[in-house]
Specification:
The complex is a heterodimer of chains A (952) and B (215). Chain A is an alpha/beta fold. Chain A folds into four domains: 191 residues, Rossmann fold (3-Layer(aba) Sandwich), CATH 3.40.50.740; 155 residues, Dimethylsulfoxide Reductase, domain 2; 128 residues, Barwin-like endoglucanases (Beta Barrel), CATH 2.40.40; 259 residues, Alpha-Beta Plaits (2-Layer Sandwich), CATH 3.30.70. In chain A, the strands form 13 sheets. In chain A, strands 6-5-17-16-15-7-8 form a seven-stranded mixed sheet, with helices on both faces. In chain A, a hairpin with a 2-residue loop joins strand 3 and strand 4. In chain A, helix 2 packs parallel to helix 21. The two termini of chain A are 48 Å apart. Chain B has two domains: 29 residues; 125 residues, no CATH class. Chain B contains ten helices and one strand; from the N terminus they run H-H-H-H-H-H-E-H-H-H-H. In chain B, helix 5 crosses helix 6. The longest helix of chain B is centred in the first third of the chain and has 24 residues. The N and C termini of chain B lie far apart (74 Å). The model of chain B has no long low-confidence stretch (mean pLDDT 92). The chains are: A alpha/beta (952), B mainly alpha (215). Chains A and B meet through strand 1 and helix 26 of A and helix 5, strand 1 and helix 7 of B.
């Protein structure tokens, strides 16, 4: 079924062959292993200026994720990029990172990337393509571009924007369409109506005391999620019990991490959310918002829902100018407009909400894609260039681009792999990875930043910018020239060269931030009055589409993202339909049962997963799975739900039917229990209760046990410790994958995950509290706790795991004989065992992504979190060489650096002024399973929810 | 009935036990000596792609180690010089020498010279040159008298026990910063006091934990 990059069955030789191979290799290995391995050293021929072998050099660049680019700081080892972090000064990343930023390095070294130009499926080369295009150019120029079309992904690049202008200027009759299947189109359309110009809303959560999010996973998948998460956590630092705290209300159909972080969560089908917002507007009108006086709604709410709505409305009214209403991208334009109007009326404009003009954006347009496909189907497009993306896989099911592609005389697809779309175009051209190319991008906040290559294109790929430049003119110009040409207009003429160098150094354009535009309340209200009231879906159930860890499928061949358990379901390598417990009962379904979901005459079969907190009549379908031409990792993993996705219902639609299909599908779930089974693992309380009893979290973990052996003192030097603030942790998975990238953690594949053999050093435990219909969700990242009385150390027969003088529980991999006693004796289950030689079987290219500062572990060896020992040692040595003490905050663990909410503090516990020592002294900090007297070095700060007294 | 076993046969069990013990001790001794890095690694002198002589460059010409291995004070790795460094001199000195052919070839074809590593630590041991130099450990302590070697030879076992020996008692190997690359420096009679003073001033505390070198 699935084939991860180390499919053990696929390359397993037969038993007989295995034995014969073994006997032969044993005889040889027995002799040859006595000899010292011969290693070669290949120094440079010409030294590279400022490069010291073995010392990583960080470079700033940008990750161009459509309209939501983030600044990056990429470590390159001897010219080889190995680790990606967020760029601290960039407003969209703020030094933190998400799962895609961390995983992007693996895509660079993906062995399934295309390596050559293909023409009609046969190997060709760039020269043949360029000659072919130059032949077409005069014809196209004569026709002024008639019949020529470009289909690209949404982009915020000033250079691509300029080239698009130039190309459409040269070919006035051509079509240029941008399309992404997961896009902010509804939000941007609403903003254009509100502001009269192209603009986008910018939510500043750090200034909001009350936040209402409607069907938007604003911390995980919506644009600006890193900034949202940071802003949200800033509003709930809770260093003392007197500190204030923001409050988050979430209304959503399926459980998301944003819903888990909410202080109050209301589950509601996606198609009922807009009418619900009308009821809210009406309620706010009743409470005194003049524009909404007499506002009506079509929604009928039950009593609990009504109470919830009234409480939220009163809370919003009490925080005028300090609240924020925000909705997700899949909700309709009218809902966004309504929320804009409410925000304006509540006085939030300029405080918690800005509208930033979009100057360089090429936003996605579904109507554009439909129009283009119709023209193609009618045979009016003779030349089609597709830049990136994979429209054959991502286009709505009722837009038959695959069929229409056959009608073009000359079609090309610039793509990093020969995917579903490339297979149907005449030419396939290898695309460079963003770490291999020049470019630029404008973030949600309007921050301009450059892309600079970390490495020359591994497979001779070219960038979208280079292709756009070439197609327009027939001249092959490098991305460097094209980008510099754009920046000659963006940077002052005087001192261009030095400013250009400063730009590449900092990765940030220090020009003025764009002046926010002011929306026109009149225009919004006029539009709202002229559109019919949004009606709740007539016939339920509904289906909702949401991007998965693979987004819209573009990350399908990334083994890290495939194996990353979904933060809510904890499922890896699959995308079952998420259904509510009520719906499961109604149809008699259990986890993994196959169902048919039918919408009109379209039908798909996939397994179900019963999701606590799911709205009763809502079915969540995850995008991005079931790829057929993603590569060796992604092909055939999960189920393609795209055939139900229609241009009229890209986000959700109701009126589907569900019935059991019989049969089951094996699903690998990394956490098979949902509750804490009466143990106080995640300690949680309300703000009021916390203020009354600040030390509530410590009551049952304070013990005065005596040890049987002589105690270590740990009173000198560095004594490392960590505190994880559960109030700030939102469960976004960034730490898990940052750790995987930093520490060379292997991928094991679906069968192994199903057996509980995943290797992640940080596991994100997710617990539900309350009934399965409408529970609250909490997260707890658990890695090795570095116990001072480590139970693992007592049982190791070969002393492979021991303590060092800085309080670290260390693993000597070479001593480990693999008894796994330590894992048995670990109360946290934080140790991972290499059941197979996962790394040795890895493709040579993928090994390039490994961190040379961390040992690669062999089969039969235990491993676990080291507190990023390599970073500690390097930082200590650097401070030593510079003859100064190590300062607090100078060394960060990989998880800490990635965390968007700053939930993790790490440092020296003996330094009273260090962040970690301060956090550990918080009243709400506690030791997980502290009653066992293992004295963990990692502590947790209890979770506090700011409940509305009206609702508790 | 006559004795089936002669009297001397009583000694057989003792002889067997003694023999086994002797053989065992011999085998252990054999492997302890011939299997130890002191035997297997010390004296390792692989042939290099060109007959570069440290005895000539570092010895007779008295070039400092850091002219070529410039990163030793800042990086974990002791870098090998790029071909360019050789060419700094050899564009003028002996430009026609046949012994220098590989260098000229590398410079002309831009292909690196493939040296064979002599001092090879396992991949799971993370040795850091800069840390040791900063602490006052000279090149000589681990590499021996490089300035006297025509072909570089491993002079110390570089085993974990050998490393730990110095980590436990670094004093004999400490030297002044000015003499760090010297191959001829000899500790004076007052060395113990000097070492104690240096160790105190630099707060030397060589790690003996696993985490000092393995990660």
């Amino acid at each position: 079924m699935m084939s991860p990059d180390h499919d053990l069955r696929a390359d397993m030789p037969s038993r007989r062959r295995f034995l014969s191979l073994m006997s032969a290799s044993l005889a040889l290995a027995g002799l040859s292993s006595c000899r010292k391995p011969v290693e070669r050293i290949l120094p440079y021929v010409k030294g590279v200026e400022e490069l010291v072998p073995g010392i990583p050099v960080p470079y700033a660049t940008t990750m161009p994720m459509g309209l939501d680019p983030t600044g990056l700081l990429v470590s390159t080892f001897d010219g080889r990029p190995t680790k990606i972090e967020g760029l601290p000064g960039h407003p969209a990343s703020l030094g933190a990172s998400d799962i895609y930023m961390q995983a992007a390095i693996l895509n660079l070294y993906d062995p399934d990337r295309s390596r050559t130009v293909l023409h009609a499926g046969k190997t060709s080369d760039w020269a043949a393509f360029t000659a072919g295009w130059k032949e077409q150019l005069p014809r196209l120029q004569e026709r002024r571009g008639e019949g020529l079309a470009v289909l690209a992904e949404a982009s915020s690049s000033p250079t691509l924007h300029r080239l698009q202008r130039e190309m459409t200027g040269r070919f006035p009759l051509m079509k240029w369409v941008n399309y992404d299947s997961v896009s902010d189109e509804n939000i941007l359309t609403a903003a254009r109506i509100a502001c009269g110009v192209d603009a986008r809303p910018l939510a500043l959560l750090d200034h909001a005391e009350v936040i209402l999010a409607l069907d938007g996973d604003i911390f995980y998948s919506e644009s600006g999620h890193l900034r949202h998460a940071r802003g949200f956590a800033t509003g709930r630092r809770l260093e003392t019990s007197e500190a204030g705290m923001n409050r988050l209300y979430v209304v959503e159909p399926g459980m998301t991490i944003t819903g888990g972080a909410a202080d109050h969560r209301l589950r509601l089908e996606a198609s009922r959310i807009a009418p619900w917002a009308h009821s809210l507007a009406a309620e706010l009108g009743d409470l005194g918002l003049s524009s909404f006086a007499g506002f009506t709604s079509s929604a009928t709410l039950d009593e609990a829902n009504q109470r919830w709505l009234k409480a939220a409305a009163r809370d919003l009214m009490a925080h005028r100018g300090r609240c924020l209403l925000i909705a997700g991208r899949r909700q309709p334009v009218e809902l966004h407009l309504l929320l804009f109007a409410l925000n304006l009326e509540l006085g939030n404009l300029g405080r918690t909400l800005h509208f930033v003009p979009m100057e360089h954006a090429l936003p996605s347009s579904l109507a554009g894609l439909k129009g283009l496909t119709e023209q193609m189907a009618a045979g009016r497009i003779s030349h089609l260039a597709i830049f990136g993306g994979n429209p054959v896989y991502t286009a709505p099911a009722d837009v038959d681009i695959a069929g229409a592609l056959a009608k073009a005389d000359f079609s090309l697809h610039l793509s990093d792999r020969v995917d579903e779309t490339s297979a149907r175009t005449a030419w396939h051209l290898p695309q460079s990875h963003f770490l291999e190319e020049w470019g630029d991008a404008a973030s949600v906040e309007g921050q301009l930043s450059p892309l600079q290559p970390m490495i020359a294109p591994l497979f001779g790929g070219r960038s979208v910018i280079e292709m756009a430049g070439f197609l327009a003119t027939g001249e092959e110009r490098s991305g460097y020239e094209l980008v510099r040409e754009s920046w000659r207009r963006l940077l002052p003429v005087a001192g261009f060269e030095s400013r250009w160098r400063a730009l590449l150094h900092s990765g940030l354009h220090d020009g003025l931030a764009p002046v926010p535009v002011a929306p026109d309340p009149g225009a919004i209200m006029a539009h709202l009055r002229n559109t019919p009231l949004l009606q709740p879906g007539e016939s339920l159930p509904e289906i909702c589409f949401q991007p998965s860890a693979l987004l819209d499928g573009r990350w399908a061949n990334n083994a890290w993202l495939q194996e990353l358990p979904d933060p809510v379901t904890k499922i890896a390598w699959d995308n079952p339909a998420r259904i509510s417990p009520a719906l499961a009962r109604k149809h008699g379904l259990a986890n993994g049962d196959l169902v048919d979901i039918k919408a009109g005459d379209r039908e798909i079969t996939l397994p179900v997963w019963i999701m606590p907190g799911q709205a009763d009549e809502s079915i969540t379908l995850e995008l991005g799975y079931g790829r057929t031409r993603a590569g060796r990792v992604g092909d055939g993993v999960g189920f393609d739900v795209g055939s139900l996705r229609l241009s009229g219902g890209m986000g959700f639609y109701s009126g589907v039917s569900l019935r059991s299909a019989g049969g089951r599908h094996v699903i690998a779930c990394a956490q098979e229990f949902d509750g804490m089974v009466e143990r106080p693992l995640v300690r949680e309380t309300g703000l009021k209760e916390f203020q009354g009893d600040p030390h509530f979290a410590r009551h049952d973990s304070e013990i005065a046990a005596k040890n049987l052996w002589k105690e270590h003192t740990y009173d000198a030097g560095f004594q490392w410790g960590m505190v994880i603030d559960l109030t700030a942790c939102i469960g976004c998975n960034a730490c898990t994958i940052a750790c995987q990238s930093e520490n060379n953690i292997p991928v094991v594949g679906k069968e192994q995950v199903a057996m509980g053999r995943e290797m992640h050093w940080i596991r994100l435990d997710r617990y539900f509290k309350g009934g399965e219909e409408n529970p609250e969700m909490v997260y707890q990242p658990v890695a090795c706790q570095h116990c001072e009385n480590a139970p693992c150390e007592q049982v190791c027969p070969v002393a492979a795991t021991v303590h060092d003088h800085e309080g670290l529980n260390v693993m000597a991999y070479n001593r480990c004989v693999g008894t796994r006693y330590c894992s048995n004796n670990c109360p946290y289950k934080a140790r991972r065992f290499n059941f197979f030689d996962y790394t040795g079987r890895m493709d040579e290219l993928k090994k390039m992504a490994q961190n040379p500062d961390v040992t690669v572990r062999m089969r039969g060896v235990m491993e676990k979190c080291t507190y990023c020992l390599q970073r500690l040692n390097l930082a200590k040595n650097r401070a030593r060489l510079e003859g100064r003490p190590l300062v607090d905050g100078e060394v960060m663990t990989a998880c800490q650096q990635a965390c968007p909410t700053g939930a993790i503090s790490f440092g020296n516990l003996l330094d009273d002024s260090s962040r970690v020592a301060i956090a550990r002294a918080w009243a709400r900090s506690y030791a997980l399973l502290g009653e066992l007297n293992v004295r963990p070095r990692t502590h947790y700060a209890a979770k506090i929810r700011n409940r509305n007294p009206e609702l508790s | 009935m006559a004795q089936l076993f002669k009297r001397w046969t009583n000694k057989i069990p003792i002889a067997v036990v003694a023999g086994v013990l002797l053989l065992g001790a011999g085998a252990i001794g054999f492997f302890a000596f011939f299997g130890s890095p002191r035997y297997t690694d010390v004296g390792y002198r692989p042939m290099q792609p060109l007959p570069f002589s440290h005895a000539l460059h570092a010895g007779d010409l008295a070039m400092d180690c850091r002219y070529c291995h410039h990163a030793i004070e800042s990086a974990a790795h002791a870098n090998l010089p790029p071909t360019q460094t050789c060419m700094n001199c050899h564009t003028l000195i002996l430009p026609q020498s046949s012994r220098l052919m590989p260098v000229h070839e590398s410079w002309g074809t831009l292909r690196p010279i493939a040296w064979t590593r002599v001092h090879l630590l396992p991949d799971y041991a993370y040795f850091n040159h800069s840390a040791h130099l900063a602490a006052g450990i000279g090149c000589f302590s681990c590499h021996g008298n490089i300035a006297g070697m025509t072909v570089v030879t491993q002079s110390q076992p570089l085993s974990m026990g050998w490393c730990l020996g110095c980590h436990r008692h670094p004093e004999p190997n400490l030297r002044p910063a000015a003499e760090i690359t010297s191959m001829t420096w000899q500790p004076d009679a007052d060395h113990a006091r000097f070492a104690a003073e240096l160790a105190g001033r630099k707060k030397l505390n060589p790690p003996q934990d696993c985490s000092g070198c393995h990660r």
